[in-house]
Design a protein that fits this description.
With 109 residues, the protein is mainly beta. The strands form two sheets. Strands 2, 4, 5, 6, 9, 10 and 11 form a seven-stranded mixed β-sheet that branches. The protein starts with a strand and ends with a strand.
């Protein structure tokens, strides 16, 4: 089974940026990021399909979150700009049938 490992979370002040990385144990066709904030539902952030589907973003993240990848179909990088307290959540990497362990992002002054 594919394993996903996230890194890059942390505590930042409002307006700051963070870069989150997710590396898969093998090449896979689709990877994406979700987040779970306290008291809220799991939210889709962005995903990429290397088999022609391109990159898609959730509606609330357009313009502040950017997803990039490597050509080996094993790593995705999520850059989050102008973070706000409402972005506080556990960020999860996901592929087909597999979730990473999650990385905490906390935004506060």
């Amino acid at each position: 089974q594919v394993q996903l490992v996230e890194s890059g979370g942390g505590a930042v002040q409002p307006g700051a940026s963070l870069t989150l990385s997710c590396t898969a144990s093998e090449s896979i066709p689709v990877m994406g990021w979700f987040r779970l904030a306290p008291g809220k539902r799991m939210e889709f952030i962005a995903a990429i399909s290397w088999r022609g589907g391109g990159t898609k973003y959730g509606d609330s993240e357009k313009g502040r979150f950017t997803l990039t990848t490597d050509t080996a179909m094993k790593k995705i990088i999520l850059k989050a700009d102008n973070l706000q307290p409402e972005d506080t959540a556990v960020y999860y990497c996901k592929s087909v049938g597999t979730w990473g362990q999650g990385t905490q992002v906390t935004v506060s002054s």
